[in-house]
Amino acid sequence: MLSRAARPALRAGAAAAVRPATVNAPAATYATLREIEDRLKSIRNIEKITKTMKIVASTKLTRAQRAMNESRTYGKTSNTVFEKAETKPEEGEGKKTLLIVCSSDKGLCGGIHSGLSRKSRALAAGQPDMNIVVIGEKCKAQLGRSNAKAIKLTFQGVGKDVPTFADAQAIADQVTLIPQHYDSVKILFNKFVNAQSYEPTIIEAYSKEAIANSPNYSAFEIEDEVLGNLQEYSLANSLYWALAEGHACEQSARRNAMDNASKNAGDMISRFTILFNRTRQAVITGELVEIITGATASEDM
Amino acid sequence: MAFAWKASGLTQAPPGCWLRYLGQRLPSYNRYLAVASRVVRRSLKEDLRVQAERRGEMDLRFAKWENGKQGENKNLAKANEVAMAEHTSSSQ
To answer: What is the CATH T-level fold of the domain A54-258, as seen in this structure?
Structure first.
């Protein structure tokens, strides 16, 4: 008896819109149920993507870190000369400075690019006639909005793979071709502190004059003619160091960002699953109540 | 004298260097290094060469900016060659 009475009620419940009296409440729950399901599905997809990206970044990170350690040796060794010679950057009034910002083309790695942009903006505010060379699309877009006048050159295509010394050399070559003389060249990059943190740091690439004016310069017995070579080579070395270290930072930052994203997605999935189940149960309970009420009512008659 | 090629505005490899016999003209020390390392890589044994040549790959593009406007996107390797060639011809 009950089951027979139940059937039409169920069918009516499925096509909720037909029943004008209860149209609002059940229709709303059915709709949200489907909405929740869709939402869950899309969050699951996003979680899959972020997890994969995290794994990719992890594998790239080990390679990037190895490259970074090697490049550090390059950079530090080449800078030993300047440390021993006690070279000081030429700064002060009327001195032209060039800032080389080492970011990369790819995003989805937290705030490392905006950290660089912020730092370079702060530097540019202190020295209005400073010129900027940007390596990488991300900082180019950010600095192109605020400091477009200062930008001299931009490079793209960095960050696909571990940077090579050939990259650094080509950039150094193009930078030396700028028809402007700079008294000081600063290279801004993200220094790798540990897997969680990094900080925007500057290494100095000295100009010929700065090298020639350093106090212990004579101890090295560098012939004037070779000085240009040393300067070019040390610029390439420092650039290589900065690029490799920035690359390692980017990979680790991306790994962290994707790790967080996956965790957040996991949280959302569990929350939505609970909500989904609760709503489903509420719908079922509501239907049962309707059926029973209908049955009791028809028995009385 | 070593490196006289650079300081005197000459754009040839150092005297006595084998690059000189190839008639390479090199306007910058980095270029000199790049050419030298390329030749070394290419003369390695086959298995090592493949590995080493990956380290020599460079696929950058660059753009010059004038007055806050981005110029044309150009291939860096080609542009460097052209610029170096111009530099060579003008300093000869």
So the answer is: Pyruvate Kinase; Chain: A, domain 1 (3.40.1380)
